[in-house]
Design a protein that fits this description.
Chain lengths: 207, 75
């Protein structure tokens, strides 16, 4: 009973309520599915500029869904809430943190392309595992600070994608390896998001 | 910390009816625990609510009293 009247807990509940609509799940799910599609198109022999163009087009879909939903669907059903300075500062710090991580990841990928990691004896699945950790760990930190528990699971799926792809390749070959490692988790996460979204729409009719 | 929320958000979180919540909020506003701000948004009026410092302190005080009461009854 005392926990129920704890203002901090109530405010945390209010924060978590913003994830009930499943829009972030759909966003992450489509993002991961996009990787599977890119690998598939690459397998079909699509040229690099076209692949980048397709990737950019695909990425706009989750961005549009998220921004449209958060602006026109969610507030009309559960109302809107503004969080204080502490949350805003945390969000700002996380943005810097994620930007820095994207840069680290890009440097890591550029160094890989340049073949610099060939000098370091990383055997077998070690390289995809390190790459996976470089994605999973920052995303897990984000999940912790955002108090978004489902993101822990998604970060593992996202991070392990490349590792699993390498693992599946000798067993099932391309493009099934990327479908199993990125496509399946991406579709599952999107479906989870759609489930949350439908539940949200049913639970909170428009007022 | 929640800075402010609109009427609909509070209604959804508390699961109270429109009339019930309105009555509660009027009393809380009178006591100086809640700030009520009306804003016009197109054709609709948006009600923005925020907890005052006195409201936050009163809530914390209530929680402490409740905790000590429960503590005493459990002994």
């Amino acid at each position: 009973l005392v926990e129920n009247v704890d203002l901090k807990e109530i405010e945390k509940k209010a924060w978590r309520a913003t994830y009930q609509d499943g829009l972030w799940d759909i966003y992450i799910g489509l993002l991961i599915t996009g990787f599977a599609l890119i690998f598939y198109l690459n397998f079909l022999g699509l040229e690099e500029p076209l692949l980048i163009f397709f990737l950019c087009c695909w990425m706009t879909i989750p961005i549009l869904i998220l921004s449209f939903g958060k602006k026109f669907i969610t507030p009309k059903r559960i109302g809107s809430v503004k969080f204080g300075r502490k949350r805003k500062k945390t969000k700002q710090k996380l943005t810097y943190f994620l930007t820095a991580n994207v840069f680290i990841l890009l440097i890591f990928l550029i160094l890989t392309q340049l073949g610099l990691f060939e000098l370091i004896p990383l055997e077998g699945l070690m390289f995809p595992l390190i790459l996976g950790l470089l994605i999973s760990i920052p995303l897990s930190i984000v999940a912790y600070f955002l108090d978004f528990n489902r993101l822990y699971v998604y970060s593992i799926f996202f991070g392990l994608g490349y590792f699993l792809s390498e693992l599946f390749y000798p067993l099932v070959g391309a493009p099934l390896d990327s479908f199993l490692s990125f496509g399946v988790p991406g579709i599952v996460i999107t479906l989870i998001g759609i489930y949350f979204f439908i539940s949200f729409i049913k639970k909170y009719p428009k007022e | 910390v929640v800075e402010s929320a609109d009427f609909l958000f509070i209604k959804r979180q508390t699961e109270l009816t429109f009339g019930n919540l309105s009555a509660h909020l009027s009393k809380l506003e009178e006591a100086g625990y809640v700030n009520v701000e009306k804003k016009s948004k197109g054709k609709k009026t948006e009600t923005i609510l925020s907890l005052t410092k006195a409201g936050r302190n009163a809530f914390e005080d209530y929680r402490k009293k409740l905790a000590s009461l429960l503590d005493r009854t459990s002994k």
